[in-house]
Amino acid sequence: MVVDDDFDITTLVKITLQKNGFKNVFAFTKPLLALEHFKINLKDYCLVIADIRMPEMNGFEFARSVSQMKPEIKVLLMTAFDVNDTLLSTNMKYNNNIGGIIQKPVSSAKLARMTMAQISK
């Protein structure tokens, strides 16, 4: 699952994941809609990639919500901004499902490496 309020980014990440072997990639620009879809289809998900800054719900909140529903889910967060180390360490302390931060813009090759690394853990 890819969640970002920017349609172009969700499309790019979805295409990159599909080219790297992920068959069913769902992309959402609305976090609450994505959360509802996750709730209904949680058995089909192994990885969530979510932007940190989104309206309705930020990426840390989204990660916490999906982790409560499916404790083994892997999560990568994305951002185009600098992340405050204290904020990051606090959120990662309370949600060990967060496997890392993807700094935007990201190359397709790096995105593929990061996602495959999460799946193989």
Q: What would a concise description of this structure say?
A:
With 121 residues, this protein is an alpha/beta fold.
Account of the 3D structure:
The chain is an alpha/beta fold and 121 residues long. It has a single domain, classed as Response regulator (Rossmann fold, 3-Layer(aba) Sandwich). The protein is 47% helix and 17% strand. It is built from five helices and five strands, in the order E-H-E-H-E-H-E-H-E-H. It has helices at 7-19, 31-41, 59-69, 85-94, 108-119; strands at 2-3, 27-28, 47-51, 74-79, 98-103. The chain has a five-stranded parallel β-sheet, with helices on both faces. Strand 3 (47-51), helix 3 and strand 4 (74-79) form a beta-alpha-beta unit. The longest helix is centred in the N-terminal third of the chain and has 13 residues, at 7-19. It is globular. The relative contact order is 0.18. The mean pLDDT is 90.
- For the record, the CATH architecture stands as 3-Layer(aba) Sandwich
* Low-confidence residue ranges: none
Mean pLDDT: 90
Which strand order does the major sheet show?
2-1-3-4-5
Extended strand count: 5
Helix content: 40-55%
SSE succession: EHEHEHEHEH
* Content of β-strand: 15-25%
The Cα radius of gyration reads: 13 Å
Give the overall shape: globular
Please report the distance between the alpha carbons of the first and last residues: 18 Å
Q: What kind of sheet is the major sheet?
A: 5 strands, parallel
